[in-house]
Amino acid sequence: MQPSAAPDPVDLAHTHARPLHWLATATATAAVVALAGVLTPRAAEADTTTTAAPAPAAPGPAAAPDADTAVYPLRCGGGAHTVARRATGDLDGDKNPETVAVVHCEAGSGTPPAGLYVLTRGRGEGAPARVVATLVDPREQRSVTDLEIREGAVRATLLGYSSPDVPRCCPDEKEQVGWEWTGGAFVRTTGAGALGA
User: Fold this and answer.
1) Cα separation of 12 and 77, whole Å?
2) Tag placement on the chain: N or C end, fewer CB within 10 Å?
3) Is the pTM of this model over 0.85?
4) Can you tell me the distance from the alpha carbon of 46 to that of 152, in angstroms, rounded to the nearest whole number?
């Protein structure tokens, strides 16, 4: 193998930079930069900032059912009814609140019997709340006080009458009661168990 001969300096004349070459290169570069400036939007006109779209909010729990919109299985003889008390909380563990409402017929005096109802949201947007359980029927002739939902259970005090001779203004019986959703139904407890002790 023969070593290659070194090229003649005359053959590589184009590798020697001359001022004319530098001037031609600078002019071509300036023309490319100018053309790029004309073809792209100006910085003042273009929005160079990028803003990330906000992440969609995680759906929160649904609003509690509105006790004032429900139709109650309560007979008031053509008169109006009153939602006397209400409490909200998740009773069945589905992460959506239910409403428990104490409802009685309007009365001028005395203590009208009350019903205690569990409400869930209506079917569809804007639909009224639905009664899904009756915990105390007005026919039991009870008043409901101290209503609350605690640790997924309904807690209340029931006032009643020991006999028909007791005036309707002055209940003479008092009972602590509670209801918990167990096995697909509300199970009632009384006494200390009702207080969640």
Assistant:
1) 116
2) N
3) no
4) 56
